[in-house]
Amino acid sequence: MSKKAGIKELSPIDVYKLLPKTNCKECGQENCMAFATKIVNREITLDSCKPILKKENEKSYLKLKDMLKPAVKEVIVGVGEKAKKLGGKLVMYRHEFTYFNPTALTIDVTDEMPEQEIVSRIKRTENFSFEYIGYTLKLDMIAIRCTSGDAEKFKAVVKKVSEITNLPYILCTLNAAIAEAGLMAAPKANPLLYAANSENWKDMAELATMYHCPLVVSAPNDLNLLVSMVKTLTAYGVTDLVLDPGTFMNEGLGTTLNNFTMLRRAACKGGEELAGYPLIGVPMIAWVGKGEAADEIIKWKEAYLASMLVVRYADILVMHGNDGWALLPTAVLRQNIYTDPRKPVAVAPGLKVFGTPDENSPVLFTSNFALTYYTVASDIESNKINAYLIVVETEGSAIDSGVAGRKLTAERVADAIKASGVEDKVKHRKLIIPGKASRISGEIEELSGWKVQVGPRDSSEIPKYLIDKWQP
Ligand code: SF4
After folding, report:
1. pLDDT, tens digit, for every residue of 314-358?
2. Which residue of 15, 21, 31, 54 sits with most ligand 1 atoms within 8 Å of its CB, as the best mutation to test the pocket?
3. How confident is the model at residue 1 (pLDDT cuts 50, 70, 90)?
4. Tens digit of each residue's pLDDT (9 = 90 or more) over 136-154
5. Alpha helices (H) along 246-389
6. Taking all residues of the chain, what is their mean pLDDT, rounded to a whole number?
7. Would the pLDDT of 276 be above 70?
8. How far is the C-alpha of 345 from the C-alpha of 338, rounded, in Å?
């Protein structure tokens, strides 16, 4: 089994050695070394260097391609703008580098649902949208499950789905004849086929090669079988695979997380190429054998299983419950994990205007750390306060850590006041500063010439503070 070097072992020098080394700048970089550094940081693609694509450099190009190959293969589902990239992971732990391609959240429909229900579930999936610290959280895919056992029925539903949405989808059936009927309904849609198992793998492999679509390999709680099927399928010519080690509830939860972790560890730490494919989790398993349990309990179980699997390496999740309250925690958690730990989550500094402030309105400031900014902005906005808020460049630090680490200084606040143009908008010269920046209040007054009022430590208290203390 072939093994490859981890991301940590790859240095710019390794890349540089294989580049043309002409410093021609065609890639937009100053020289080949700068390009090599960007390549290692995944800030630029290898194909941006045109000279490396020339015939005489083919050997180096292929070597570089192989060196840069992620531990977990990137597999694309769907076509066009909404096509979804799965996997493409370089590292096991986010802090080792960063995670690419956020877990695709997928909602199911079945071929036995009334048409109206199918349409409404798809619309709800498409319309799910939540603003969170400057990001829009969305859902990604539709899973079309054949529960009828009827190929024609399945085909008709796939056709319907392909007509009403351009979200990518999964075709779920273990029956190859039914899967083919689904593929024929939209032959160019590049859906994910779910799934090949130890019994149907040959037929499914043929479909995947014939329709050029990715294929899920399923071996519930049997990693040896899973890996050996990957070996067989790749030898058969199927290159885009997604692994399903099984998702189990209750006493099976530990086993589920363990299997996901072992596969990802084998790929990222062990360099096992047969384990280096995206992983699919199926939290909707929570609905199996639901019995008398209330829907809310099942939705909650499904949501916590989804959250655990987002953390434990799932690249795609299939869910049945589509309530916002159940999906939102998973979507937020996903966002938190998939931000780049090398870059602070920050907003652009400058003057923000809330409501319709006039020359007597309060002027406040906060840091440009996204979480701080959006918390303060939401407290001002939701209380319908007319105010000016100066966002100070703190390199993404919060208020207290910014003050402690000298990222939030009186100089920066004074400069931000000047640059904001707020002096032309208000006739007073009073600045309300966050309570956690009180240490630098004197210095701010000195450098800015503004009178400083130390505001609350928590922005939720801003409305009350303004009522009690604001006098222009
Ligand atoms: S285009 Fe290629 S050869 Fe030219 S500077 Fe960039 S990396 Fe070097």
Report:
1. 999 999 999 999 999 999 999 999 998 888 889 999 999 999 999
2. 31
3. very low
4. 999 999 999 999 999 999 9
5. 253-268, 295-311, 324-337, 370-382
6. 95
7. yes
8. 11
The pLDDT of residue 134 is: 82
Tokens of 168: 């990518």
Task: Say which DSSP state 102 is in.
Answer: P
> What's the Cα-to-Cα distance from 173 to each of 83, 314, 321, 366, rounded to whole Å?
21, 21, 20, 53
Q: Is 94 exposed, middle or buried (0-12, 13-18, 19+ CB in 10 A)?
A: middle
pTM of the model: 0.86
In eight-state DSSP terms, residue 106 is: E
Strands 280-281 and 84-87, by their bridges, are unpaired
| Residues 266, 268: Cα–Cα separation, whole Å | 6
* Whether the CB of 35 sits within 6 Å of ligand 1: yes
Question: Which residues face 424 on adjacent strands?
Answer: none
Distance 38 CA to ligand 1 centre (A): 12
Ligand 1 mean position to 41 CA, how many Å? Answer: 16
Is residue 73 within 8 A of residue 88, CB to CB? The reply is yes
pLDDT score for 4: 52
The DSSP output letter for 65 is H
Ligand 1 atom with the shortest distance to the CA of 36: 7
- Written as one letter, the residue type at 46 is L
- Gyration radius of the chain's alpha carbons: 27
Give residue 362 CA to ligand 1 midpoint distance, Å.
53
φ/ψ (deg, to 5) at 92: -80, -45
Domains for the chain: give ranges and CATH numbers.
Answer: 7-68 (1.10.15.40), 74-337 (3.20.20.20), 350-469 (3.40.50.11600)
- Judge if the beta carbon of residue 162 lies within 6 A of ligand 1: no
